[in-house]
Design brief:
This protein is mainly alpha-helical. It has one domain (about 5-200): Rhodopsin 7-helix transmembrane proteins (Rhopdopsin 7-helix transmembrane proteins, Up-down Bundle). It is about 55% helix and about 0% strand. The chain has a two-stranded antiparallel sheet with strand order 1-2. Strand 1 and strand 2 (about 95) form a beta hairpin. Helix 1 (about 10-45) runs antiparallel to helix 3 (about 60-80), helix 1 (about 10-45) runs parallel beside helix 4 and helix 4 runs antiparallel to helix 6 (about 150-160). It starts with 9 loop residues before the first helix and ends in a 65-residue tail after the last helix.
Length: about 260
């Protein structure tokens, strides 16, 4: 038994709703951050001016933005608990925000609509610039982002209108959202990262290739050793034998004692 952590209990429902919304908001804002980096790298590559690294934010700035995203997600996830009527059991196996609560659905709409528009706009501009090595990367990132958050906008509108939700709507949104954890390591950790490294010159760059996850091409193998030298010198070179110098004879040293006034 889950005890107090069961979604049927008040604490368990709030706990499950809290980490679900925290992950949702953090994932959505992180996707927008990746879209911004993609746009800057693509435009910088297309212009061909300056070093790519100079066009991207520093590691320190990126870390600060990531922390800001996390703390923003924590605050938003706490609001239904501390400032509203808590999270709601959806009757579809889990707890989430109460879309029919004006404050909760309003907050979700205020985050979802701008983030949705900005993220898709940045990816679209990156795609139009032609500076990203692999077009398929951007198509997959756009499709992934839309599939994850597309149901939030209609949910907010239905919540404002106090309209009933179709059966299975909540669990469908949950499955699409959690499915991102299965594909994001490949999309962002492999495809996106390797394409960015290709733009920086650390991997081979190939704008038209879509078969390779990094959009790269195979480079010819390089021989690890230099070609061997010819065994004999060219025939045009004339050799002259120089005789060895004779060894000097040892100096004669007399051991006879000289008399006084006698020359050696």
């Amino acid at each position: 038994e889950l005890g107090d952590f069961s979604p049927l209990q008040s604490f368990g429902c709030d706990f499950q709703g809290f980490y679900s919304v925290l992950g949702s908001i953090a994932g959505m804002l992180s996707g927008m951050l990746i879209a911004a980096f993609t746009f800057m790298a693509s435009v910088g590559s297309a212009s061909g001016k300056g070093d790519l690294a100079a066009k991207l934010p520093s590691k320190r700035f990126t870390s600060l933005v990531a922390l800001a995203i996390f703390f923003t997600a924590v605050i938003v996830a706490l609001l239904p608990i501390v400032a509203s009527d808590h999270y709601l059991n959806t009757d579809e196996g889990f707890c989430y925000i109460d879309w029919h609560d004006g404050a909760q659905s309003g907050i979700m709409f205020a985050f979802t609509l701008p983030t949705f528009v900005v993220t898709l706009g940045l990816f679209g501009r990156a795609l139009a610039s032609g500076g990203w090595p692999n077009t398929l990367d951007l198509v997959l990132l756009i499709a992934s982002f839309i599939s994850a958050w597309a149901l939030w906008l209609p949910a907010s509108i239905m919540g404002f209108a106090q309209a009933p939700f179709p059966g299975g709507y909540h669990i469908a949104g949950g499955i699409l959202g959690h499915a991102q954890a299965l594909i994001n390591p490949y999309l962002y950790g492999i495809r996106w990262r390797d394409s960015l490294l290709a733009l920086g010159g650390e991997l081979p760059l190939h704008k038209t290739g879509v078969d390779s996850p990094i959009g790269g091409v195979d480079l010819p193998a390089v021989s690890p050793t230099p070609p061997s030298l010819p065994a004999s010198p060219p025939s045009s070179v004339r050799h002259i034998d120089v005789p060895a110098a004779p060894e000097p004879e040892p100096a004669f040293v007399s051991t006879r004692k000289l008399a006084w006034g006698e020359e050696a």
